[in-house]
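Record 1 of the preview.
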Amino acid sequence: MNKKINILDTTLRDGEQTAGVVFANEEKIFIAKMLDAIGVDQIEAGIPVMGENEKNVIKKIVKSNLKASIMGWNRAVIQDLQQSIDCGVDAVAISISTSDIHIKHKLNSTRDKVVEQMVKATEYAKQNGMYISVNAEDASRSDETFLLHFIKSAKEAGANRIRFCDTVGILNPITTYNKIKLIKDNVNIDVEMHTHNDLGMATANAIAGALAGANYLGVTVNGLGERAGNASLEEVIMAVKASMEINIDYKTENLKDLCKYVAKASDRFIPKWKAIVGENIFHHESGIHADGMLKNPLTYEIINPDELGLERKIIIGKHSGTAAIKNRLAFFNIIIDNNTAYQLLDKVRNTAIAIKRSLTDLELLNLYEDVIEDMAILKEA
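->
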């Protein structure tokens, strides 16, 4: 595929809406700079109408001379939009619900009033020279006929794109694809995917949307966000590259540092097994896997660890084989034959079971010395 996929990062807005997460102003500025260094296309910097503190940090981000477009998030309210405009952003998100359950129970409104409110806000933003994303909140549960009418009205009012929000994470990749294809077949407008992870499918749904024609993917670093979070920046970027096979121009080697910084700022640790940036994702222990990887990394790795600033490592433990043990000892300039390797393997497995974990290099070397001593005793006998 030769299409251009644009990344919209909303860590500073939706990511900070994670329960219990608050970024200090200087952290928000630094995160914005790190996002820009990676090359994200647009940064949703916050919600200006929240007050002067929020506006001040957004203004500082705007004045940081970043390459990325800076967006402010707004309700479909003129006052909100004016606050964003005052911050100097070049883009605005105008958000309003489109599902009947939201329109009735959240907005206490009607379909017609929702469209009218959105159109007025969009026209105001257009008159003020803004790039406009009209957000259809809870689009995934919206009546499709009404949703198409809403999107057509947004385009006619001056919207540059529509943000399709799977607000409650109810979709799966097939339903996502079908809904986005329906939009693209009926309205000539850019579509952004905004997917939530309630059922663990946020990244998959973002990619399904892209396959159906969406050319903007909304993400957060480490998948931060309401409830179970959003699609992860790091996962989506690498899925676009490795799964969709689209050439991308993002500096993926910076992802690890960005994710570590946001994890610290949000007080949310990164699991060692986390996709893309987890500490262990290039660690190999299983004998069959380690043997294949040693012969050719492509046997069990679809990404070069250098692309992510990570390192490949052979782990010695219960599931290791002789090839891995030989390889690890060779790192210390110790070359062993097959007989020694098999005897050492038996000790490695018994020790790993006893201590319920993989072995450190020091433990491996101690076991190796034990084997050598045992072999020497047997030889003398």
